[in-house]
Amino acid sequence: MWHLRRWSVPAYSKAIEVDGLVRRFGDFTAVDGISFDVEPGEFFGFLGPNGAGKTTSISILCTLLNPTAGSARVAGHDVVTERDAVRSSIGLVFQEITLDDYLTGEENLRFHAVLYGLRKEQVQERMPPLIEMVGLSDWVDKQVRFYSGGMQRRLEIARGLLHAPRVLFLDEPTIGLDPQTRTHIWDYIEDLRHRESTTMFLTTHYMDEAERCDRIAIIDRGRVVAIDTPDNLKASVGTDTVTITTDDEEAARVAIARELDVEGEHCSSGLRLRVPEGEKFVPRLFDTPGVGVQSVSVRRPSLDDVFIKYTGRDIRDAESDSVDQFKSSGMVQAFRKR
Amino acid sequence: MTTAEAADTAGATAASAASSSGRDGRFVHNARTVYMVWYREIIRFLRSPARIVSGLAQPILFLVVLGAGLNPLVGDSSEGVTYQEFIFPGVLAMSVLFSSLFSAISIVWDREFGFLREMLVAPVSRTGLVLGKAAGGGTVAVMQGVILLVLAPFIGVSLDAFQVLGVFALLLLLAFALVAFGIVLASRMQRMESFQMVMALVVNPMLFLSGALFPLNDLPTWLAFLTRLNPATYGVDAIRRVMIPGAPAVTIFGWPVPIWLDVVIIFTMGVAMLAMSVRSFRKVD
């Protein structure tokens, strides 16, 4: 069985260090003073709605954009003053597909290898196992325009790893893919984590993807509002969600508020109650007069709840907010210029 | 090779790559980048036959249809050259003009479809990327020109080996300058839609004001003035005088411009444009 070898042992303490990073586009502040560190080998996630500043942050870390203020180091190198050193230590899988579709898969990889200054032997050593890992052995000789979306993504992941980067950036790697392909891509990413000790930096607005990270930072309106392991973040919510359906939900809500001192809220699936210990709360619910319970579900806190706790709103609502803000700010034009 | 040997080799590779200087040296790295960016342009060209055919369609229409159609009307020149023979050098220059600018503008395409980011985030000098792009676009444009050159015998133009070499060198020079110019335009364009605008406001005026289709001496003053400002004029002039010995030179205030000056003008423009395009690629924001 093959094994991918790292070429260099990093002599630095943090994979990524970000300190007070700010980026403005005109009078819109896309990134508003964020700070965090990522340890070598860590799988770190940036969770936030579209337009929260994730892509702007990643562009700064990848030297494609200069910060307005603050500093950032990647693999020990400053992203402004040591651009080339940063560039050769990172791999990138962009949000949009950045392959040349008239080249074959292998030609795309070779193009990348040359631009990253790899020697022939290094390419020989690394390319075949990477192609095998992403399951494209039968396809490398075909032009990329004949690939499916998922295959293109997999080729990009292999390409991002070809030069053995210390940090691999995955900017919304499954955006625009169907659920089955998403699962597939994640199988590859998980597999990768076990084979390579590369630090990975993921941005996503999918909760289930953030769930897989060692640590996540929740980013909203250009700020980091929380940063911890997914489990700790969920524990910090402190409440379970009990959802019930009844004959008359408004009457039930009033009765529960009066008898149990819990304020419920109506939602599409019934009446939602937030309580510290869901299982112990349910029997009391049945004893409460005036609440004709038809069904009950108890749910542990999810990252959705974490997001609501720290930002005061649902990630989907946040999404539409941010996009409106994004459009009205002229940032769309600013982005085009790059 | 045994497993142990394989592991050794891998280990040696790992050790040699331990520092970034263990990868290729800076010069070799940049040279290989130029080659690779050039190679990509050639592959793309050869894999899109539609582009080759459509790139030839307009020059051939001008040469065969317009040339043959206007022949009886215009009559032979004092050197005994038919109108078709007269515009042949102009049509060569035109084909180089179109395909050079088209190649350069494919950068906008790359920007819109993301491949430019893959190049820009790589640890290579922007100069290498621009040089590769200019070389690739130039080669493609010259290939188009050479395909047309093969038509020469069919319209009664006979060229000796020196003339063919001379024309080839001039096409190469012109293509290089025009691609560099195109890259400067492309770095200021955000969307592929602006391509139509470039065709209407840059490429077509450059063609019509270049002397490709009519002689430039004895024109009304305003028109003569505009044609002398157009760098393509000097390309057409040089190519025509190599292909048709004795053809009158383009004049500035009555002074005939020597071929070497044509060459210097195009070369200077090319270098200046290349410098500008490298600068516009260096910007990060």
Outline the fold blueprint.
The complex is a heterodimer of chains A (338) and B (285).
Chain A: E1 16-25, E2 28-38, E3 43-47, H1 54-61, E4 69-74, E5 77-78, H2 83-89, E6 90-93, H3 105-115, H4 120-133, H5 149-161, E7 167-171, H6 179-195, E8 199-204, H7 207-210, E9 215-220, E10 223-228, H8 230-237, E11 240-246, H9 249-260, E12 265-267, E13 270-275, H10 278-287, E14 293-299, H11 303-311, H12 315-328, H13 331-336
Helix pairs in contact in A: 4-5, 5-6, 8-11
Chain B: H1 3-16, H2 26-46, H3 49-74, H4 83-112, H5 115-120, H6 126-149, H7 161-187, H8 194-208, H9 221-229, H10 231-243, E1 251-252, E2 255-256, H11 259-282
Antiparallel strand pairs in B: 1-2
Number of contiguous helices of chain A: 13
Instruction: Name the assembly state.
Output: heterodimer
Shape of chain B: globular
Rough outline of chain A: elongated
Give the fraction of residues assigned to helices of chain B. Answer: over 70%
Largest sheet of chain B: 2 strands, antiparallel
Q: Helix and strand succession of chain B?
A: HHHHHHHHHHEEH
Query: Pairing-aware structural class of the strands and helices of chain A?
Result: alpha/beta
Distance between the termini of chain B: 50 Å
**What is the CA–CA distance across the termini of chain A?**
43 Å
Strand content of chain A: 15-25%
Record the strand order, biggest sheet of chain B: 1-2
Strand content of chain B: under 5%
Query: Number of helix segments of chain B?
Result: 11
**Quick one: how many beta strands of chain B?**
2
Count up the domains of chain B: 1
Whole-number mean pLDDT of chain A: 84
